[in-house]
# Entry
Amino acid sequence: MALANVLQSESVDFSNYGRKCRGFSSSLYETELGLESVGGDNLSFAVRTACSDGDGPERKIQFLHGTTTLAFKFQHGVIVAVDSRATAGAYIASQTVKKVIEINPYLLGTMAGGAADCSFWERLLARQCRVYELRNKERISVAAASKLLANMVYQYKGMGLSMGTMVCGWDKTGPGLYYVDSEGNRVCGDLFAVGSGSMYAYGIVDSGLKQKDLTVEEACDLGCRAIYQATYRDAYSGGQVNLYHVHSEGWNRVSQSDVLMLHQQYQNLTDQ
Amino acid sequence: MFATQVYGDNGKMKEYHYTGPVEHRFSPYSFNGGTVLAVAGEDFAIVASDTRLSEGYSIHSRDSPKCYKLTDTTVIGCSGFHGDCLTLTEIIDARLKMYKHSNNKCMTSGAIAAMLSTILYGRRFFPYYVYNIIGGLDEEGKGAVYSFDPVGSYQRDTYKAGGSASAMLQPLLDNQIGFKNMEGVQHLPLSQEKAVQLVKDVFISAAERDVYTGDALRICIVTKDGIKEETVPLRKD
# Structure
């Protein structure tokens, strides 16, 4: 399997334990960034013991863990906006998580779901993209990069990976935006929002995109506002809004704004 | 030590109401408590941990520090399941030696952090039940702290608390080092003496309110001159 192969080359093989001992639960508080694995959680005990009843209500309520990430295509490329909160249960583990992974100078990946899953597989994707470049003497397309990622995680379908990511970039065919997740979905689209705050973000972006032909600045403001509004209403999103713009020359980081500052800024605007 | 599900995953004992037939399953994990803390300064890093090793209602040892020296510029603090802490540190030591032999230089703090991330993710489906925090100096000599979750997600911070009392310590650090929720306060850089005093105060508070934290505090101060260790007694009850 891809995981064992990658790690084996650099170290003694400790990864075989995972194959046989899959039955053991990881109800440890792993940092969660976004969506719950919908298709059955293989990592739980087969028999529910009476002792786990204390956690009963929590396990029955399937809520999406905290994040809001969004990306949309527009005339001048792709805007990617994310929040920066990571939660472990109800505890905020960090307010400064980088949920946009810079795969290479013209490809970005967002992070939602299990933090370790997203960062590991996207780092692996960066490696694969570089190998592609060396073999084929040209940059990899967004479609191919997202396909590589989708195929990598499909091998682990049903084993409990939790990853909902958007692969954004600019290639020969123009701006590219794909949504890839650990369930095996891979869809091309013009607008995606992922995470517990996604519904709030969709509302803002849908209304803003009605006016065609946004300028770069308008699009950036729209993305920023959408994430801010999502953090306002979603308890599990917050921290800072990280904004990236992908254009024909590559991506650049537009801004990093603390939600508290944004709140005061928008408050002043409405008061005027 | 075998632990049954009666203990629950966070070490707290469950109620003893008889609810019917109860099946006890063998759990490969057990929770041994302990708190770890790391702070990065301008040219120093501090990694501190308590030295209590507990399980359920018992204390196994009062002198089991959770900071481990990796290189001259890096210290790691590991709390959670002690068995996994020991094995993990042994694996890291082995990998450090291998790197030294292949590359003829010591691993930098950033490299150790990236390597630990892949080591932890290698056990994605049977994780090491360890909360790690690495503290050390980066290539420029500035303090660096890297915090991890049990499966390898990591990021660089200025300060981080991990382990059983982390939820109590982190807000205090956010306020005193990060100046969060303070208006009109000058952001002074943290000096080494102030940082050490803060760490001591913070652990004293943790020992007051967390049963798994106490006995003694081991502080490792990493500077370009090496690693200095200090031990401070804490509440033993």
Q: What stands out?
A: Residues 109 and 166 of chain B are 23 Å apart (CA to CA). Chain B has one domain: 35-234. The domain at 35-234 of chain B is CATH 3.60.20.10 (Glutamine Phosphoribosylpyrophosphate, subunit 1, domain 1).
